[in-house]
Amino acid sequence: MSRHRINLIIFLIILTFPLFDRTSYHLDVAVLIGIFSILSIGLNVLLGNTGQISLGHAAFFGIGAYTNALLTRDVGFSFWSSLPISSLFTGIIGYGIGLTSLRLKGHYLAMATLAFGIITSTIITEWTELTGGTGGFRNIPYPAIGSFRFDSGVKYFYLVWIFVIFIFLFTENFLSTRVGRALKAIHKNEDVANVLGINPTKYKLKIFGLSAIYAGVAGALFANHSNFISSESFSIMVSVSILCMITIGGLGKTWGSIMGASLLTLFPEIIRYVVSSPFFSQSVRRALTNYSYHLFIYGILMLLVIVFLPGGLISIFQGKGARSQNARS
Amino acid sequence: MDIAQLIVNGITMGCIYALVALGFHLIYNATGAINFAQGEQVMLGGVLSVTLMVMLRLPLPLVFLLTIIFAGLMGLVYERIAIHPVLHISELMIIMGSIAASIILRNGIFIIWGDEEIPFPPFSQRPPFEIFGVSIFPQSLWIIGVTLITVSLLWIFFRFTLMGKAIQACANNHIGARLVGISPSKIVAYIFVFAGGLSAIAGIIMSPITFAGGPLGTIFAVKGFTASILGGISSSAAVVFGGILLGILEFFIASYISSGYRDVIALAILIVILTLKPEGLFILKRKS
Questions:
Q1: Does B162 fall in a domain?
Q2: Distance in angstroms (rounded) separating the CA atoms of residues B52 and A38
Q3: Which residues on chain A are in Cβ contact (under 8 Å) with B89?
Q4: Which residues of A touch B97 (CB under 8 A)?
Q5: Radius of gyration, CA atoms only, chain B
Q6: Would an 8 Å CB–CB cutoff place B73 in contact with chain A?
Q7: Are the Cβ atoms of A108 and B275 closer than 8 angstroms?
Q8: pLDDT tens digits along B199-254
Q9: Nearest to A314 by CA among A127, A9, A48
Q10: Which of A134, B73, B222, B252 has the largest count of CB atoms under 10 Å?
């Protein structure tokens, strides 16, 4: 069976989800998985394919979210006209941050993006006239086409997952073109790529911009879904979670991003479901629903994957060849 | 506020940044990588010492000794689990390993000690005294004193002991060090022990000012890194000056520009220096 057909079947299965389960809480979780999938695909294109690390991805997510929230609530733009503006704006900022990566490699870039993430989340918290700070930004309108409003869980589920599929297909196709191969060459050996006539600087900048655009789209979808955003959703911990998602799922693999996003978003929900049984005492229940426990476990999982399964969990499904690729280079 | 007062406060804070920056410098020289768990190791020093001091009521010297030993051992465990297995794969994997370790350590601390800052009594209970109109808290003297002692001990260690020289040899040239019988893999492990202990010292002395634990780890790591980049990460003297310079700069920013945006400006300085002069202000030529 060809790869495209497998992709098609998996997406069809995902899209039938609301036929079986229309609990609004479950649909909210599914929407969140979709949004984190887009974020993860974006970071994975950057990290998995060019080896550039961003520890500030939540900042791009936040910039997209607040720009879109402001444009749709205060300026009166429709979701469809504000989405391209806010994602492009995020992309331009990403391009600007990418400019620092011209001189920086590896850990320097990681620190610069971490600093950028802290700067952005501090500004979001402090600039209360614009963002509402920790109090939050309220009454963001739902997206609509004519009089059709995406105001229910099912409608928003389809809206988000159609974006996920579109971004998935775009990324997969784009990675198998000349550009994608150039990126892989840069990741393997920048000097050799340069000799072969690939301009690493140009490609690295573009991919940083693209990664930020994805995060901007995710931010816009997130803002108009929850109607309410606050600075907490865009903290450094969110950047770290996205990094965990793609490492655990599989670096450099688009399905790995979706798998990682699903696993780490579902994990707290499953734990919450399991501990709600009367079998567990109150104190165990409180402990296991604590976010620190979850992150602690993600950290251990991430470390195990880095050391023992560098291709990520997705490589278990993709056969032996995929298991050792990409990450170890 | 008085300029002299700002400078004194800045130096106090700068000493802490200097210690954190020294940790970055040690590990950078030995492995060529940045230790992303540095901030969490500082936090560890704080919460360990608060436990020993407030709960077990041990005397201060013993608190220092036990905290440093335990944090050093944790540094060794960290190196063995997260750094050693990926040391020769790629720089990216070292970063990822240290980020994973930082997530584990940070949330482990939150699980055991909670995610709020824990109050920490000052080392000596005397009131602040005044010299030329500048009021100085006894804790400032503790911080500056401990930093001076630590930096001098480190200097003596690197200058005069065999192991100190071996570490330097290893930082200069891995293959050369191996040829004269030094095992780089062992040296890297020692370095992580040292850096763990050093971070713990920073964590202990800053806790009476900033409180122990809590979510401050990340910001202290980034500030310490800013200090090391400001000075020049490849030289130990430069990172200490970088730390003190950053401390003073911050107090001036907070006092004359905005205290809410103090961190933003400090980190913007980091990004600008990383972009324009990544080798640091006090380093004339980049070492290759």
A1: yes
A2: 46
A3: 310, 328
A4: 303, 306-307
A5: 19
A6: no
A7: no
A8: 999 999 988 888 887 777 788 888 899 998 888 888 888 899 999 999 999 988 88
A9: A48
A10: B222
Nearest to B92 among A53, A111, A112 (CB): A53
Q: Identify which of A115, A247, A292 has the shortest CB distance to residue B110.
A: A292
Residue with tokens 């191996």: B178
Predicted confidence band of residue B284 (pLDDT cuts 50, 70, 90): low
Nearest CB to B100 within list A55, A287, A299: A299
Whether the pLDDT of residue B285 is over 60: the answer is: no
10 Å Cβ neighbour count for B148?
12
Domains and CATH numbers, chain A: 25-323 (1.10.3470)
How much is the average pLDDT of A239-258?
92
Is B189 among the domain residues?
yes
* Chain B neighbors of A47, CB-CB under 8 A: 92
pLDDT, one tens digit per residue, over A307-326 is 998 888 988 887 655 444 44
DSSP lists the bridge partners of residue A144 as A149
Residue in B108, B261, B267 closest to A126 by CB:
B261
Q: Tell me which of A80 and B88 has the higher pLDDT.
A: A80
Residues of B in contact with A119 (CB under 8 A): 263-264, 267-268, 271
* Subunit contact A303:B218, Cβ cutoff 8 A: no
pLDDT tens per residue across span A264-274 = 999 888 888 88
Residues A33-62: tens digit of each pLDDT: 999 999 999 999 988 888 888 888 999 999
Q: Which of residues 88-127 of B touch A (CB under 8 A)?
A: 89-97, 99-104, 106-108, 110-111, 115
3-state secondary structure (DSSP) of residue B136: strand
CATH code of residue B102 = 1.10.3470
Q: Do B268 and A119 touch (CB under 8 A)?
A: yes
pLDDT digits (tens, 9 = 90+) for A10-32: 888 888 888 887 788 888 899 99
**pLDDT (mean) for B129-156:** 87
Q: How far is CA A226 from CA A42, A103, A136, B146, B187, in A?
A: 21, 39, 11, 50, 51
A145: β partners: A148
B85 in any annotated domain: yes
**Residue A16's pLDDT is what?**
85
Q: Domain tally for chain B?
A: 1
Q: In terms of residues, how long is chain B?
A: 288
Give the pLDDT confidence of B102-117 residue by residue, as tens digits: 999 999 999 888 888 8
- Helix, coil or strand: residue B130: strand
**Residue B153 domain-assigned (yes or no):** yes
Q: Which residues of A touch B33 (CB under 8 A)?
A: 106-107
Range of the domain at B260: 3-276
* Average predicted confidence (pLDDT) for chain A: 85
Residue count of chain A: 329
Chain B residues with beta carbon closer than 8 angstroms to that of A302: 96, 99-100, 103
A242-245 long-range CB contacts below 8 Å, 24 or more apart?
A242/A36, A242/A39, A242/A40, A242/A43, A242/A57, A242/A58, A243/A43, A243/A47, A243/A55, A243/A57, A243/A302, A243/B96, A243/B99, A244/A298, A244/A299, A244/A301, A244/A302, A244/B103, A245/A36, A245/A40
Mark yes or no for CB contact A115/B275 under 8 Å: no
pTM exceeding the 0.95 threshold for the entire prediction: no
